[in-house]
Fold:
Amino acid sequence: MSQWSGKLFSESGEASFCRVGAFIALVFACAWISYLVLKNHALPDLEGITFFISTIYALGKGNETLQKILGRGKQ
Structure:
């Protein structure tokens, strides 16, 4: 477990915080949207939640790309 948690916060491409965070946000969003559909009997606007989930992942990938450009990342 300690190896996985070490990889979780690294940008090695195996397990990163942005990937796990985006996955957790996706699971939460699916549950929340399912609740809203059951309560209101209509599909809500998905634009905001899509932007929220993709932003979490994009911030991590943007940081990884910037580190590679600056030469500080893993080659």
Remarks:
- Residues 2-70 form one domain.
- Residues 62 and 68 are 10 Å apart (CA to CA).
- Residues 17-40 form the longest helix (24 residues).
- The chain has one domain: 2-70.
